[in-house]
Design a protein that fits this description.
- This is ABC transporter permease.
- It holds the Pfam family BPD_transp_2.
- GO terms for molecular function: transmembrane transporter activity.
- It is a multi-pass membrane protein.
- By secondary structure, the protein is mostly helical.
- The protein has a single domain, classed as Orthogonal Bundle (ABC transporter involved in vitamin B12 uptake, BtuC).
- The protein is built from 13 helices and 2 strands.
- Strands 1-2 form a two-stranded antiparallel ribbon.
- The longest helix has about 40 residues.
- It is globular.
Amino acid sequence: MAAVEIAAGAARKETRLYSAAAQKFLAFGGLIGLVIIFSLASPYFLTFDNIVGILLATTVSGILGLGATFVIITAGIDLSVGTVMTLSAVMMGVLISNWGLPIPVGIVGGMATGALAGLINGVTISKMKVPPFVATLGVMMAAKGLSLVISGSKPIYFTATPAVRGLTMDSLVGGLVPGLDVPNAVFFLFGAAILASLILGKTVLGRYAFAIGSNEEATRLSGVNVDVWKAAVYALCGIFSGLAGVIMGSRLNSAQPALGSGYELDAIAAVVIGGTSLSGGEGTILGTIIGAFVMSVLINGLRILSVPQEWQLVVTGAIVIVAVYADVLRRRRQ
């Protein structure tokens, strides 16, 4: 009997792996298809400047998606990643511009702000048993309000920030890699993706995230402190939101307290398009990066073709619905 159960478990795991690989292949095929369509529709699409623009547009939503991947793998959701990103940028601005602290200290402070917000999400969900949708919605609204209160509803500029060994806020991300003419932000994205992939695939946190998403009660009965690890997952998501805030602040050379709303939808869409299941227990970092590029290429291509912004939203929403429905179909087959 035990041998039969082991064989059945192995078969289910093999089916999930095959399904995840198929979803990534489908997302990548969709990305290639979009590139071909838009390159044929406009000669400007494949120019170097436009490709760099796509890469830059993907950095923030991609990094937010990395954090959201961990949360969604646990069968949770985080609606606060966009406003937490903004709050992190504002706190970084306060530390650097208002208090005159060194840039590295401000960066650490911004990411710590994101980690704290994520931890509050995790504790509220795991200990207080508040549903993730409600808990993160509350933190989203609170972070938005705090950003406006702390900044006085005004942007905090880094223009007067003194350089530290040649490092300025605008050169942190906006600077170009010598010889490549590619902004540093692109390497922040891929570096964060590599780190997230290692955490998800090689650490205890990653293994427990999959276990919690697959069967939380069974994981709890096996002796795992689910509440602690779930809080850690949300805190990690907050750290990625803080990093996105640092990159956004550096790109704009300012902390804009009114930004943030809507980024959580782009991040979740990238995660879902990349094959991470909203039911939990399945997902990859590579899939999320592919999904983020699908979103960026789609929006960029529609803008080049002068499609009105309202129709861009309609098309994007339809693609998200199709991606979720594909996930539902895969779950039914499994």
